[in-house]
Amino acid sequence: MYCLILKLVKKSENMTKRLLALGMEGSANKLGIGVVASDGEILSNLRDTYITPPGTGFLPRETAQHHSELVHEMVKKALSDAGITDPKSSTK
Q: Is the confidence at residue 2, as pLDDT, over 60?
């Protein structure tokens, strides 16, 4: 499992700063990405499963290809689901 610590920027007076962690985990056939706050609140928890063709087992190359094709979009969706936006993309 990989973990990246993020800091949520305070956007207004009624919004508190929180420390966030982005976790990513890949196994033989599953890919999971989630965001959790330091107070334990789960802000997003995405999972995807690679399903092999019937009668075949898990082949490392195909599983790795599956995970690599999905990971970028899953990270973007996990951050979006958690309400995290890119401060550079906001208009002033």
A: no
